[in-house]
Amino acid sequence: MSNVNISISVDDEYVDKILEVVAELQVAGMNVENIMPILGVITGSVDSTQMDALSQVKGIAVVEVSRNFKAI
């Protein structure tokens, strides 16, 4: 069990209800860090065992693990 950073895309039909989607994600265990309503994107972190629960939230199009890149 470890926390992973995630990026969530909200279904176009739910972008106008993004704060409701955020509330449901928090109930499902997500620590929400950023909400970008114009883009329909929510970022944050969650325990890796809760990833499936997030994808079941109504209004979610895609749940992706965020990747970190370093410049060389």
Layout of secondary structure:
Elements: E1 3-10, H1 18-27, E2 31-36, E3 41-47, H2 51-55, E4 60-65
Antiparallel strand pairs: 1-3, 1-4, 2-3
Quick structural gist:
With 72 residues, this protein is of the alpha+beta class. It contains two helices and four strands.
Tally of contiguous helical segments: 2
Structural class: alpha+beta
> How far is the first residue's CA from the last residue's CA?
31 Å
The biggest sheet amounts to: 4 strands, antiparallel
Low-confidence stretches: none
Q: Which strands sit side by side, in order, in the main sheet?
A: 2-3-1-4
What CATH architecture do you see?
Answer: 2-Layer Sandwich
Query: What is the fold-level CATH name, i.e. the topology?
Result: Alpha-Beta Plaits
- CATH level 1 name: Alpha Beta
Count of structural domains: 1
